[in-house]
Amino acid sequence: MQNWNSTKNKKFIYIIAGLVVMLLIMSLVRWRVIEREKGVVVTESLVDLAEIKSASAVTGRTLQPSNYLTPLSPKNAEERRQYPLAIFTLEEVMNQMLADARRWSADAKPLYIHSAGAVGLDGKSSQWQAVFTSRLKNAAFELVYRGDSLWRQSQITKQDEGENLPVTLPSTRLQIMSNSDLPQFSNRSMTSIGWYYNLDAKKWFYQIALDGNQLVSGPL
Predict the structure, then answer these.
(1) Stretch 39-63: mean pLDDT
(2) DSSP letters along 17-84, please?
(3) Cα 90 from Cα 115, distance rounded (Å)
(4) Helix (H, G, I), strand (E, B) or coil at 126
């Protein structure tokens, strides 16, 4: 009777051990599938940005493309891009920069902000460059963020005045998604994004630079 119980216990232990091994294998397979679905991890080489000598609305409307293409509507995992150095979305880094600019001058207002690194579909970029203006100082202020840190700040000459942003900042991710859903952009790639104050319309506009030097723009 005792031998029978011992054999039964051993079978039970083997069954449990087998189930544990199966669960571990299934977890490993699932993890690998999830990793593949995340897409291609891109290691960036960040470019040192040339210093801006003066702040103008024309510069704000000129969105420079980056060296990295992000498909707007990825068809498979190979077309998905992951940028580990991209920390902040545009609206997140703008809040950080505005606080920095207000320490420089209490009346600081943004004139424009551009991505200066790769941009993911989540609206995050590895590098951001923005310009603020001040009537009190009669000058402008350039800020550059890399990752989650302030990389450069400098007072520069002012040509045009900035303006306060809308009270509720729009989501750059939604702006990107609203364009990626359009049939004409299904096979296009994004290179950079930005916001700028349009002096003629007296409104803030967003911009998305696409491959082929095409620019998509609209009011915030």
Answers:
(1) 87
(2) HHHHHHHHHHHHHHHHHHHHHH-EE----PPPPPPPSEE-HHHHH-PPP-S--EESS--SGGG-EE-T
(3) 8
(4) coil
Name the residue among 127, 117, 81, 141 with its Cα closest to residue 209: 117
Instruction: Give dist(CA 25, CA 19) in Å, integer.
Output: 10
Q: What is the pLDDT of residue 171?
A: 84
Beta bridge partners of 217: 207
Long-range contacts from 199-202, C-beta under 8 angstroms, 24+ separation? 199/57, 199/160, 202/163
List, in order, residues 6 or more apart from 37 with CB less than 8 Å away. Answer: 77, 80
User: d(Cα 193, Cα 123) in Å, to the nearest integer?
Assistant: 8
Segment 13-25 mean pLDDT: 61
Helix (H) or strand (E) holding 86: none
pLDDT band at 31 (very low <50, low <70, confident <90, very high): very low
52-108 pLDDT per residue, tens: 888 899 998 888 888 899 998 888 888 899 999 999 999 999 999 999 999 999 999
The residue with greater pLDDT, 78 or 204, is 204
Residues 40 and 80: their CA atoms lie apart, in Å, by: 6
Q: How far apart are CA 205 and CA 15, in angstroms?
A: 63
Q: What is the CA radius of gyration of the chain?
A: 25
